[in-house]
Amino acid sequence: MKKTGLFITFEGIEGCGKTTQMNLLADYLKKEGVSVLKTREPGGTEIGEKIREILLNPDNKKMLKETEMLLYGASRTQHVEEIIKPALKSGKIVLCDRYSDSTLAYQGFGRDMGISFIKRACPLSLGTIQPDLTILLDLDVKTGLSRIKNRIHGNDRIEKEKIAFHNKVRKGYLQLAKASRGRIKIVRADKEIDEVHDEIKNIVAKKFSAHPELVEGLDSR
Ligand SMILES: Nc1ncnc2c1ncn2[C@@H]1O[C@H](COP(=O)(O)OP(=O)(O)O)[C@@H](O)[C@H]1O
Ligand SMILES: [Mg+2]
Fold it and tell me: What structural domains and CATH numbers belong to the chain?
């Protein structure tokens, strides 16, 4: 049988717990003997990390929304070809902190570019592969931003946007989830870290039950 991994992405507004939950899931899966690759966007490759610095640098106030979309797209294209596709081909479970739904939510909804415009103008910016599963951690904006206000290096360019922008992003995510119910699973992120983790484990176990070759030992309640 042809080996193919599973591509799982984590999405949601700033401070919703993506990185925390991705790390917990990765640790859990590794303990279960699953071969996992953790990565993130923008970034994930040497070139992508350089693009990430440009995108998140608060000094780049002049950046056009079109430039922003293309830079995210450039980082993603590099990432998919260099890291994600080879890992999936070797049968790994790829966990990615942000992916194409971030472009649709932030540039499409947050910056009002419209998702149909992005899909038409720059399909590459959405990556050439679709996640098998997307965990959308849904949280109100004030709670999210209050969780990250003490980040050591100061907030980045996107985090500094106004509350109204982040609200548009959150609503955008929920709209995307409605349109892709099979792939995007909404998880309430206002609960305790462990509770959120348990819910994610259950969702992933269900997904795995369709791919028993990947995780023989994993419990699929
Ligand atoms: N469910 C939760 N309840 C309270 N605090 C949380 C929860 N999940 C994450 N945090 C904390 O909130 C902050 C932001 O979490 P993080 O995972 O970095 O979010 P993101 O990657 O989505 O921006 C971190 O300090 C983290 O420890
Ligand atoms: Mg994070």
Answer: 6-209 (3.40.50.300)
